[in-house]
């Protein structure tokens, strides 16, 4: 999803989410729902891979299993049985993966990457490197999954925010202000920012405020895209970031 949604009223942003499109397809998938599902899978493949690794599977097996899972999920008619009761794509995806691992290990272990009907080109090398850095031995596979999902979500938000600034030729400003996105307001060195960017302290405060505001807007948009009911964004946000306290 590209940036540039600044002028769209919040009510319209959440009118039809990607996950809503998938759920609405029901037993008969549509081109729109298939694209929406594939985009969601491309975005959130890493938390699934991390979960499989945390379950004890080696790198190559985890890659094969994750790819085979997506091949099955993205097959035609794979949406059959979905209902709005499965309101969170995060929860649905993990439940589907657990079922897949429990019932399809023999088949999936023989199905090498690219052998399925659908193939997602994923950056396995960076995924493994990231897993080595992210894995926490004290976390359960489920909590590791939630934490990886939250980190992936935040990475996507920052990437969108940077793309927006690049489009406005403000990349340098974004790179300078990025460290302050989640910093406590009282700790932000506005005078230092003003000196670095050659602007007044007042302008620095406004720039940081706008960046943080847009960051929160995009964060809510991205979370909403994985929910059937966008009114539960706050609850999902709280659940996700609780994983960092685990």
UniProtKB/TrEMBL annotation:
Pfam families reported for this sequence: Sigma70_r2
InterPro entries: RNA_pol_sigma-70-like, RNA_pol_sigma70_r2, RNA_pol_sigma_r2
The RNA polymerase sigma-70 region domain, residue ranges: 47-110
GO MF term (any one): sigma factor activity
Keyword entries, A-Z: Sigma factor, Transcription, Transcription regulation
Annotated protein name in UniProt: RNA polymerase sigma-70 factor (ECF subfamily)
GO biological process: DNA-templated transcription initiation
